[in-house]
Amino acid sequence: MVTLDFHPTGRHFLQIPGPSPVPDRILRAMSHPTIDHRGPEFGVLGLRVLAGMQRIFQTKQPVMIYPASGTGAWEAALVNTLSPGDPVLMYETGHFASLWNRLASRLGLKTESIGLPGTEGWRKGVQAHLIEERLKADTQHAIKAVCVVHNETSTGATSNILAVRRAIDAAKHPALLLVDSISGLASAEYRHDEWGVDVTVSGSQKGLMLPPGISFNAVSPKAIEASRSAKLPRSFWAWDEILEMNKTGYWPYTPNTNLLYGLAEACDMLLDPAHGGLEGTFARHRRWAEGVRAAVRAWGLEIQVTEAASQSPVLTGVVMPEGVDADAVRKLIYERFDLSLGTGLGKIKGRMFRIGHLGDCNDLTLMAALSGCEMGLKLAGVKLAGSGVQAAMDYFASHAAPVALRQAA
Amino acid sequence: MVTLDFHPTGRHFLQIPGPSPVPDRILRAMSHPTIDHRGPEFGVLGLRVLAGMQRIFQTKQPVMIYPASGTGAWEAALVNTLSPGDPVLMYETGHFASLWNRLASRLGLKTESIGLPGTEGWRKGVQAHLIEERLKADTQHAIKAVCVVHNETSTGATSNILAVRRAIDAAKHPALLLVDSISGLASAEYRHDEWGVDVTVSGSQKGLMLPPGISFNAVSPKAIEASRSAKLPRSFWAWDEILEMNKTGYWPYTPNTNLLYGLAEACDMLLDPAHGGLEGTFARHRRWAEGVRAAVRAWGLEIQVTEAASQSPVLTGVVMPEGVDADAVRKLIYERFDLSLGTGLGKIKGRMFRIGHLGDCNDLTLMAALSGCEMGLKLAGVKLAGSGVQAAMDYFASHAAPVALRQAA
Amino acid sequence: MVTLDFHPTGRHFLQIPGPSPVPDRILRAMSHPTIDHRGPEFGVLGLRVLAGMQRIFQTKQPVMIYPASGTGAWEAALVNTLSPGDPVLMYETGHFASLWNRLASRLGLKTESIGLPGTEGWRKGVQAHLIEERLKADTQHAIKAVCVVHNETSTGATSNILAVRRAIDAAKHPALLLVDSISGLASAEYRHDEWGVDVTVSGSQKGLMLPPGISFNAVSPKAIEASRSAKLPRSFWAWDEILEMNKTGYWPYTPNTNLLYGLAEACDMLLDPAHGGLEGTFARHRRWAEGVRAAVRAWGLEIQVTEAASQSPVLTGVVMPEGVDADAVRKLIYERFDLSLGTGLGKIKGRMFRIGHLGDCNDLTLMAALSGCEMGLKLAGVKLAGSGVQAAMDYFASHAAPVALRQAA
Amino acid sequence: MVTLDFHPTGRHFLQIPGPSPVPDRILRAMSHPTIDHRGPEFGVLGLRVLAGMQRIFQTKQPVMIYPASGTGAWEAALVNTLSPGDPVLMYETGHFASLWNRLASRLGLKTESIGLPGTEGWRKGVQAHLIEERLKADTQHAIKAVCVVHNETSTGATSNILAVRRAIDAAKHPALLLVDSISGLASAEYRHDEWGVDVTVSGSQKGLMLPPGISFNAVSPKAIEASRSAKLPRSFWAWDEILEMNKTGYWPYTPNTNLLYGLAEACDMLLDPAHGGLEGTFARHRRWAEGVRAAVRAWGLEIQVTEAASQSPVLTGVVMPEGVDADAVRKLIYERFDLSLGTGLGKIKGRMFRIGHLGDCNDLTLMAALSGCEMGLKLAGVKLAGSGVQAAMDYFASHAAPVALRQAA
């Protein structure tokens, strides 16, 4: 067996913004024996996870579950709804938004990037008015889709998707609204139907607390309608056969059975009324994020996302003072304290690092992570204004968790 | 947790031709905590599984590992090497060959089916001379690729891939040779380089003994060359970025980490010299298949594949006498004896069932499966000429396993 | 990691009469993180397994759970109820009965062996009339306890415990009735209260389907009363403190937490009404045993236990023809077919082997075991009258399981 | 399945002084299928763990491994070496020393308690000169054994065992030296042979990082000699048969197979030269303990053990200010922060709590625990002199771990 942890003892702290730590309960579910994906037990499992994911996406429409990681679901959203050369408007909130843009280009779409200039756009959420203005100018309705990232994993900006929907409506534009909520879903509030999204893309290894390997498309009737005339070649990603087979809980090709076991368990955990259900999950992540931000502010360091309303419940980007290499800090922290943090990506490589607080957390795992950061920052010679650890303890101690202890079963 | 086995006690016998039973050792490997796919431990894991898969495919060329199930790797082989409207020659050995054909058509390729007529082609392996004749007739070299299935999972026909290579060479035709060895790899002999294959497609849930969820493209320099000018849109499946990132053991997007843990373990198991390495694996499966066929012959039932040379070491199709519904027999066996068998597919639905003997087997798991079949066939009213169980015991007892007990570690 | 299976592939068949195969479901339960054995969650677990074990023993009295293997519970039964030099009557049904006798002697009790002479007593269950006669002769009531083995693991004799109770009552003798049901409990019918047993000893690694490591004393009010004056030194095994602490679900010293997780799961499985509860469990084992005995009879070999009424639902002893070394046959079967069988013990070492059919079985695991035996017997040169495998298939096919498939959850 | 964690999300922090957190690697090892404890693989496992435990105890003499929890091994040490009514000198360092005394009394030994008066003795290690004085006074050599606790789990005092040995030698007294290192072994330095111990008692659930359920006696030739004439009744605990069977890696009765899998893994981890072997383990725990004590001092709270030389590397007792109920603080911390701390026991119940830093730790798990304590203490209204969390961070950051990162395998 390959050695998976180079540290001598103790548990690794995986505090990157995904993959998030997989709870033991889900690892155990995944260790069930693989079954016949055409047998009767499988149908029960299939219907169950499909229904569970509708509740997680807050949609009454079908949800596609792909045996593929999240990037595949980006591709699926595009090839099912668009035709070669179609113009698509892609809002750049950060590195992942730009990667999706690049993927769309490679597929032969005519992408148009929109957003604030330079690195400024990487410190804020989507500015919906820019979309509205652009769509109003597209009087011929050439633009076929607007693509935005709900939670930009590279910066920690959570955008207001309902505002984007309203912008498109205000422009009276027929473009589809395609949203990447790979890192947002199941940690940050998300309402596919209520927010009028046409396709939401997501993945397993973030708020759903699973290993990577399955991904999702939640759809709207308008998106399904678009798929009937979309001309991009597709087969593996094609919705039509999946929708047909899903009616009885099966898939047209071999599904990722063991990850579906884990998904069934994740849905049970996230939707458990004893823990406040999805709303409890969202509230917990808001609180944890606030504690982490209190720490960063106490250190006297900048948070990557400057707009308070867009600061993510999923991750926090910590900007290094001029002259400090964020990746050298990360390496020191990893080697010395067995804590993995997210690197800066693209335009902000080396300028910041990211602390994940998504998925399966609690106050003390976050205190551990913040302690590791604080010790590492000091060891790296970063001057801190004060103790972030102290600030986070003050916050967590004075703000009780939103859902109390469950009762004994 | 969803109930995954409706039977009251004991272990389910999963004897479908894939997914095959996942050994505990692999399930344990998969239960390691998910790690940072950009961290230092991951690179070690990545390089290790990439090197392991080269040995499994018997190739010195790169192997692509996709975080997607096998159907995706079919798509990948095509979109990386071909352009819209390209003619491709697809040999029909059975249901999966015809599904690959269908997938190619959906992607906009001009597929031409070749093979023996009616159901006759579903009882034999690839007739290489038909390919040679067809290619010789294609004097303009319009045909860009020849697609064949190494081990046809729907019938149990293993084709002679080297003969296909020689047929293409004999026709002096430049078409690429694309081979599906999804169910063949790591149970049936396979030699990617020696047999001159351009792209081999495979998946995790068969001879590799993993759950479904990762799949493979082994390539040739000629295939890589073709990918430089191929025009089918692609991004998720595109080889170029994967090859670049794989140099250091990483992937351009999030890989399926926990299945890669399992893959590292599977490579260790399959290549273990104490068990005879890959050749030992092939020899074991040949012997098991012969024992199972001895049983079918003793029952007086027909084997789906009539050519002895093409009868698969991976699975055996058992043809029902006229008037017997094979699926009713399967259902009885599943309900009464907790044994899953493969259904007949496509043209032969209801006419036969399939016994898988791939992946992680031993003599007694197969005796259990054959006992379940024999009891079930009798309970279903099928007249049997004799005891297949007896014949298989005679065969296994008189033919020792190719590799003896390992020594104590 | 030590290499735990010297065979190259496939699943080991563990068909000894204990430890029995541990179901995955129980292994998963045991992999929960160890918790504080003084914390609130633990009390919930403790009360649950204590109540579950009362249902398994069919008693309303307390059940002691020891963090020790079964031999310890033998010792516990004696040291809690007896004083140095106390005469105890120990019925010899086989090797384990004689080991218990030996243990009692080592503890300073005055043991008296009773039973049929020579090896004859090892082929039958307890002859209750011998006990009655002996007790009637003990007019001074010197004998303080009668010890019998419910299911003699070394021979496969299940004794009629109610008949022993009646014998003691008929003799109007106050001796305690101590019963070893280590291998009987939860596979063979057992009714602690109804049968008037004073102490029943059991262990985890048989019908309860757990690894070895916990063991039990079920008690009667009379046994508790006896413990108040019993003078054998004891502390670890002493009932008094355990009974006191168990009231709230805790133990006086550190319990075997992870095995208790498994025990909670085992109780759920054994008592599940969807599978017929305990009575369903007993019926399944009776049927499996009958199938195995049909095989032995068809081979023309003798069953160790000659009295039909005492032939065990837990295991079957197979006597070798004169001149055949049973252990050489076992070794061949283990090496060639990866099947573990039980050795002959004590007086019958080398004369017979034992097939376990306890705990978590189904028809096909038993068919696998019988196939391995039949092939191995033939390879060892044992002349067989016919096919036991065929006879078992005939039996299993013509006798449906007592509880049908559960419904989908 | 019983609900094992009443908290909604995240990982429980088990920081009691045992059971300590079981590493995933050990849980995985324990999930191997149970094998025949009389088969060939088992012998390999048995010899391996027996050899491993000799290295852990630092002894060339045999080590007994019991399928029972630690209290049983206390009993075993006594019943194998002593006779009814034998006088034994028992040094009281705290609650566990007094429980061992109580157990010895229940077994019929004549125990004499020795130590400092009142609660003073519970704040220091063994005062060897008191033992020397008492033994010198015993001119008839009536005292047969001296019993001391190496690491007193109830207070956090680690005693100097070599000093005790020297005290006995200085008194020229033949009494056996029996030592409880249940919570010391494999976290605190321990040298059975070099320190001249006759019997060392230990258990699995502390430094060995296993669940509870197996326990140990390491012995000396003098102890073995004593066992030949010792008269306390014994069978389950008797060394003679175990020593005989252990020669080939087996046990006289059913061992706790799955915990032995875990033990093999634990030995590999503890002895791994890449992590500095046992000496590395000891150094890591010394450093962690120093960090935790720095925190307690910064809080302005007293450490239970006042002698610096006796402060344990395994746990730290934190004394509450007058008027504060330590158990109310613990309860608040458990409920609010999902952190389990050890309660005060016996004489000091309610006056202090205990932080475990044994077994599988790292800097950040301890920072998490200290953060939970600091927040909880404040919420409970305890006035703190300063931030213990800050002090611990200062200590850990300025003192590098004794063994650096392992190299990639």
Task: Characterize the structure shown.
- 4 copies of one chain form a homotetramer.
- Chain A has helices at residues 24-30, 40-57, 70-81, 95-106, 128-137, 161-170, 221-229, 239-246, 257-271, 277-299, 326-337, 363-379, 388-398, and strands at residues 13-14, 63-66, 87-91, 110-114, 145-149, 151-152, 157-158, 176-180, 199-203, 215-219, 302-303, 315-319, 339-340, 342-343, 352-356.
- Chain A is of the alpha/beta class and 409 residues long.
- In chain A, 66% of the residues are buried.
- Chain A has a 7-stranded mixed β-sheet, sandwiched between helices. A 4-stranded antiparallel β-sheet of chain A has the order 11-12-15-14.
- Chains in contact: A-B, A-C, A-D, B-C, B-D, C-D.
- Chains A and D meet through helix 11, helix 12 and helix 13 of A and helix 11, helix 12 and helix 13 of D.
Write the layout of secondary structure elements.
Four copies of one chain form a homotetramer.
Chain A: E1 13-14, H1 24-30, H2 40-57, E2 63-66, H3 70-81, E3 87-91, H4 95-106, E4 110-114, H5 128-137, E5 145-149, E6 151-152, E7 157-158, H6 161-170, E8 176-180, E9 199-203, E10 215-219, H7 221-229, H8 239-246, H9 257-271, H10 277-299, E11 302-303, E12 315-319, H11 326-337, E13 339-340, E14 342-343, E15 352-356, H12 363-379, H13 388-398
Parallel strand pairs in A: 1-13, 3-4, 3-5, 5-8, 8-9
Antiparallel strand pairs in A: 2-10, 6-7, 9-10, 11-12, 12-15, 14-15
